[in-house]
Predict the 3D structure of the following.
Amino acid sequence: MFNLQGKVALVTGARRGMGKTHALALAAQGAKVVITDIDVNECELVADEVRAQGGETMCFKLDVSNKAEVEKVFDEVIEKYGRLDILVNNAGIYSSKPFLEMTEEEWDRTIDINLKGEFLCAQRAAKEMAKNKWGRIINIASVASGGVGVGIAGGAHYTASKGGIIGMSETLAVELAPLGITVNVIGPGAIDTPMVGAANLPKEVMDVMLAGVPMKRMGRPEEISAAVVFLASDEASYVTGATLYVDGGWLAA
């Protein structure tokens, strides 16, 4: 497998679902993992799992849309480890509201967390990574990122935020390449998580969604984490500005 020994990784939105499995997967390959989320108590439970498998970890409360909180957490990470090598921008929210009924507050909250949060964390991370001429920024988007044929009724704010992630990431890849930093995106398809999973969706919604997925099943969070580990590794040293869709063939169908 991929060797991340000696690397320091920070994962946002890591208290459950894909963020949790990303943290565990990175730790399993030897990285020191900083676990962050708005709910620090659940973060501590994930940290306990990392320690149980022999990993080293820290845990912080973090609202990624709050610049002061971002700066504080990154300052503490650098004080502890002296470096940051890997950032997984996983934090995000999803809600459904018809476009004609959507409020400005609902729009702003989704953009602030899903897009602005990735900007704030990526900017601070890149400043630290540039000092060592090595870094991996991995931004989590979605198959519903715009321009790829998967629109979501009731998700104008969500798809706008995820499409923005791809555009921003491609630009960052160009700007940061001379500094030894790669920037890539993962676009998950239908993944069985606490936020959007089989337990939370009516059967008729699941049936419609999976009808477009050739594999006829939801993905597992661990299948996204495998892509995260690859993009974080030295083996992905020539991969930057890419969007890797892990979707069971959804976009190919």
User: Anything to note?
Assistant: The CA atoms of residues 13 and 91 lie 4 Å apart. The beta strands are 8-11, 32-37, 57-61, 86-89, 135-140, 181-188, 243-246. Helices lie at 17-28, 40-52, 67-81, 104-132, 156-176, 203-211, 221-232.
